[in-house]
Amino acid sequence: AVMDYAGLAAAAAAKMELYRRDPGGWRDCRRTSEVAVSWRPSAEFAGNVYRGEGILPASPQHIWECIKPVAGGLRTKWDQNVKDFEVIEAISDTVSVCRTTTPSAFMRIISPREFVDVVLMKQYEDGTMLSAATNVEHPLCPPQPNFVRGFNYPCGCFCLPLPGEPDRTQLLTFFQTDLGGYLPQTVVDSFFPASIAGFYSNLTKAVKTLKA
């Protein structure tokens, strides 16, 4: 069966817009100086969807340069959860099928993972940028023997301009991931809030370094 990559990407983006407008039911689970992390049960799989929200000290364009899902992008340099990122197939200017690998984590309890997603990039009239993704299969990407295949359910990042504050950006992120394999639920439940806090912290450091 041929997958409708563009359709799946558009559906993931629509879901992100829904999450963004839906304030109900989120429970706080972690707060740092950079991010407030909350969660609620996922409607997509038997896990949780996590929301991260923070204000970063750089322009939306600058944040976008650091997080945008492109080959040779900056993400692998600063994001400790992204070891490698490759574009498997460009579907259009804004949609591509990508493979991401992650290093072992959580004191090696979580072994290296690979994810295959269709990713969409979208810019809104108010300057907001969205990157949204969801898991797909691709003929050029059979499961690799030394990785556990994980699955991202609709997830994404919004870079939101703050009116009158050109050098600050609200970053709103949604993560819902089935790590696959046989991990104790307690490991999964403590991994994500820590991982999202790390994402914001490392990104904050990256925008300061990459400002020059």
Automatic annotation (TrEMBL):
Signal peptide: none annotated. The keyword Transport applies. One of its GO terms (biological process) is cholesterol import. Residues 25-212 form the START domain. The keyword Transport applies. SMART domains: START. PROSITE patterns: START. Keywords: Lipid transport, Lipid-binding, Transport. GO terms for molecular function: cholesterol binding; cholesterol transfer activity. May be involved in the intracellular transport of sterols or other lipids. May bind cholesterol or other sterols. PANTHER family: PROTEIN CBG07384, STAR-RELATED LIPID TRANSFER PROTEIN 5. This is STAR5 protein. The gene is Stard5.
